[in-house]
Amino acid sequence: MNLKVILDKCDGCGLCAQSCPFGGIVVEGGKAKVLDVCTECGICPESCPTKALDMGGVAVGPAEQGTAAYRHILIFAEQRDLKLTRVAKQLVGKARDLANLLGVKVKAALLGKGVEPLAQELVAVGADVVFLYDDPKLANYQTDAYTKVMFELINAEKPEIVLFGATHIGRDLAPRLAQRLATGLTADCTELEIDEGERLLLQTRPAFGGNIMATITCPEHRPQMATVRPGVLREPDPDPSRRGEVVVKAVKVTDADFGTVVLQIIKAAKQAVNLEDAEIIVSGGRGVGGPDKFPLLEELAGLLGGVVGASRAAVDSGWISHDHQVGQTGKTVRPKLYIACGISGAVQHQAGMKDASCIVAINKDPLAPIFQLADYGIVGDVKEIVPAMVAEIKANWMEGKL
Amino acid sequence: MDFHFTKEHQLLRKMVREFANDVLARTAAEIDETGRWPAENVKLMADLGLFGLPFPHEYGGAGAGEMGYAIALEEIGRVCTSTGTIVGAHTGIGAMAIYLCGTEDQKRKYLLPLARGEKLAAFALTEPNAGSDAAAIQTMAVRDGDEFVLNGTKIWITNGDVADVVTVMAVTDRGLGARGGVTAFIVEKGTPGFEVGSLEHKLGIRGSSTAELVFNDCRIPKDNVLGDFGAGFIVAMKTLDVGRIGLGAGCIGGAQACLDAACRFAKARRQFGKPIADNQAIQWMIADMATELEIARWFVYRTAWMMDTGQKFTREAAMVKLYCSEMASRAANKCLQIHGGMGYMKSFPVERMYRDARIAEIYEGTSEVQRMVIAGQVLRQY
Amino acid sequence: MRIVVPLKQVPDTNNVRIDPKRGTLIREGVPSIINPEDKNALELALSVKAARGGEVIVISMGPPQAEEALREAVAMGADKAILLTDRAFAGADTLATATTLGTAIRKLGGCQLILCGRQAIDGDTAQVGPQLAENLGVPQVTYVRRLDLEDGVATVERELEDGHEVIQVKLPALFTVTKEANKPRYPHARAIMSCYGPGKLECWSLADVGLSEETVGLNGSPTKVKRTFSPQPKGQGEMLSGTKQEVVKALCRRLRGRSLL
Fold first, then answer.
1. Given an 8 Å threshold on Cβ–Cβ distance, is C231 in contact with A59?
2. Does residue C177 or residue C259 have the better pLDDT?
3. What are the φ/ψ torsions at residue B192 (nearest 5 degrees)?
4. Can you tell me the distance from the alpha carbon of C31 to that of C11, in angstroms, rounded to the nearest whole number?
5. pTM of this prediction exceeds 0.90
6. Residue A341: C-alpha distances to residues A289, A355, A363, A383, C105 (Å)
7. How close is the nearest chain B Cα to the Cα of A367, in Å?
8. Which whole-number Å values give the CA distances from B246 to A79, A175, B42, B321, in the listed order?
9. A105 vs chain C: nearest CA distance in angstroms?
10. Which of A79, A85, B69, C49 would suit a FRET pair with B35, their CA atoms being 20 to 30 Å apart?
């Protein structure tokens, strides 16, 4: 057990017991006591006003490595259909800021078939070096082949930080790679900073369904690896005149490296909703009342030039497809305007939309938590308010759009 | 003395709670509004073994005891009183009568499919002229060879229209009256002469069905006599004793829902610049609701434990029924009052909870009948 | 065929609330549950077993009370449960967790199919599945919503953000399963009443798993929690009231004022 109570510092205030999500610490006889249930999640020491809880010295892990040998930041520059993902550019932009603090270079790994033209795009948003792996075998993402390429590149380049987008591909590749490298990986980060004194990457992410935020470090192992949620970092403006180095790498994967075979890739029949890009989102929850009422939201969204989102409740009820879902298990959005229709505003939903510049909430239940978050709240039935709003906009506000 | 539920019973509660929240909560308002009988939910509950909870494995039950049954009814009652009523009429009295008084052959033939939920049961005692005065029933059964010929009308029979098996009380000897003159019969749906009459429209529990049953020269084989010939009143009283525990459990579920809704509302609703929960007038109501609920809850579970451990519980079961039903009505009344105007509106579930609570003071023996039973039991000791 | 389903007991984060004054989690009354998508994985395993026979083993690393989650899995239909419980396992990050689970699965004698939930609701990392696959040296497919088996070859559908892939893989393999895959069953009441019976659950300590203390738990975890804090709540907004015509007019005026209309 690593968590210790320093008895002469503990004043028995009980804040640790309140902070523990597992019920793993109690106050007995005026002192904190750690129970078997404790998972050593590291939350309670932060809550202790007298610093009476100690997680102990960090033991040296199985793969102690000379951290000083590792320098520079490497980005996995994910592309789909020969287009860079926006999160790849967001990562390069963030890496640029971090690299400037550390005095190192930003490097990007670009894998695929016919992806060479994307190298300059990476340079334009801040990459200094692009490792280009252009090969028909890498045309589609495949876990084993991509892991092998990235593993060899990391072993050769020894970057101190490796970043991935927390996409379905990034979250498949990064953990496989981290296990092979026997290093730490932090999932789904929403903020990255540098502790300049310790030269550590501070990786902040939501935990417990977005109820708390945790800052994670990887002190003894290299590289420090993280996946980052798409949409939470700013995308830099490209500077086409920026110069960088493109290093063409040989691809050494054979058919034997493939444990799985992609038979088919099927794009969703209809255009996937691009919630992350939308400036205006009209989102519906259980209070909308049924799938037949979603056209009301579509009409309003159409008038406003926005798209339709949904809460998990609406998606789980089968009223609208999953690609519309906003929230902890859906998409993180930061539109200028977010209109929440019949959405109660569970913490999980808030995690995906609370950064919208302006939030409007329409709900029958005056107690819905969404109203705590809203800039403007209307207590009422979505089925009545939304058509009224459509009528009002059509009647009085249309010319303003010109 | 150990007030802990077993691990199995804790897991059973969790399962029923999840099921109630996922499935029953979605239809609770709708079946109240439309009066629709929720066949699809009944099928799902049957598939989960929720219709045979108190019965042993060998009769198709879950072996969860009266304790497990009470736990399930509390959790169902928290979400949907109509559904609790359906389960109560089936398991708590319909199938229970056969379990308590049936022969081995009757249990194999009738209890097994009932406990598995393959068939549905009802319990038919009440008649137009025999409510609280149950001994005044007029439905007659006359012996004819190896059969009995049943004539008469039963009313307000929960599940009466959907039941495959009905336990029916009938007079077999008018001269003997309640003691020796009433016999219980197991009557199968489809028996010639057995018809479902009109269905009732009700104030609450509107998703459960309440039917009139008409027997017109309905011939019942003598093997379907339940319990001893002439001991039908004892069958009824033994069965209703047990039913009262589950009924009380449903009430604590309903009262818990009222307390939850009242507290949530009182903390969020602001008047005069502060949450109404800060007002002593509200706090006293909440304190009373919570205290009475806690008393009722442990009384229900203690009585279930008495039954499971083979003790006599007639007095306690009547007290449970009396106290829990009146407590639940008080809780619903306070909950509505705390909600004010919003509680009166159809858009909040409180008005349904208020209407649903009321029946428990009436069915399976009114509060007045319970007081008669209790007073009789208490005075007997002196 | 032997199918292993690793599962995690988690606090039901849907019921977690924050104390607005202190900014701490309110834990009271928050039940522990089987991680929801682990239930989807178990449901898939049970349906594979129903179609093709074999056994389903559930395995969990956690404190002693994680037994409850495993017993529930047994009530749902798992044949056997293994609880990896030892103080030394506490504080594990995903690397140490995958290492511990992988070693235990090898000790079981391996298996043809490992089905994990896509991610756990308390951490949302989605990392243990792929890391376990790497540890076991088997191929992985993540975000699986459909699985077909034929002659030891699995054909699966993997969800993508904008569609899906159809992937073929020879067993043994590991799949992480999404909630779209199925609707997990509720345990039958009778199975609940017998799931605590003898012979259904084994507890393994650090020594039983056969790993050294340096490779498990906090010691074997490269990542460390530096600090935790609550997200900042937002200030009070404005409630609009009146007739529906009045409120939508008031709203439009305010949106125009912010150049949103």
1. no
2. C177
3. -55, 135
4. 6
5. no
6. 10, 17, 6, 9, 47
7. 6
8. 61, 52, 18, 9
9. 24
10. B69
pLDDT digits (tens, 9 = 90+) for C98-123: 999 999 999 999 899 999 999 998 88
Assign C254 a pLDDT band (cuts: 50, 70, 90).
Answer: confident
Residues 6 or more apart in contact with residue B55 via CB below 8 angstroms: B61, B62, B63, B95, B99, B111, B115
Which residue from C minimizes the CA distance to B58? C190
C-alpha span between A210 and C229 (Å, rounded): 11
Kindly state the DSSP code that residue A128 receives in the 8-state scheme: S
Q: Which residue, among A324, A305, A304, A307, has the nearest Cα to A316 in the 3D structure?
A: A324
Please spell the DSSP secondary structure of chain C, one letter per residue.
-EEEEE--EEE-GGG-EE-TTT--EE-TT--EEE-HHHHHHHHHHHHHHHHH--EEEEEEES-GGGHHHHHHHHHHT-SEEEEE--GGGTT--HHHHHHHHHHHHHHTT--SEEEEES--TTT----HHHHHHHHHT--EEEEEEEEEEETTEEEEEEEETTEEEEEEEESSEEEEE-GGG--PPPPPHHHHHHTTSTTSEEEE-HHHHT--GGGSTTTT-S-EEEEEEPPPPPPP-EEE-SSHHHHHHHHHHHHHHTT--
Dihedral sign for Cα atoms in the order A194, A213, C129, A86: negative
Distance CA C228, CA A216 (A): 9
Please give, rounded to a whole number of angstroms, the shortest distance from the CA of B270 to a CA of chain C: 13
This model of the complex carries an ipTM of 0.93
B43 touches chain A (CB under 8 A): no
**Chain-chain contact of B268 with A367 (C-beta, under 8 angstroms):** yes
Which among A37, A183, A210 has the least Cβ separation from residue C63? Answer: A37
Are the Cβ atoms of A171 and C127 closer than 8 angstroms? yes
Model confidence pLDDT, tens digit, residues B81-139: 999 999 999 999 999 999 999 999 999 999 999 999 999 999 999 999 998 888 899 99
> Would you call A367 and B347 a contact, using CB atoms and an 8 Å cutoff?
no
- Compute chain C's Rg from CA coordinates: 22
CB C117 within 8 A of CB C176: yes
The two structure tokens encoding residue C157: 């559908």
The two structure tokens encoding residue B366: 């009114």
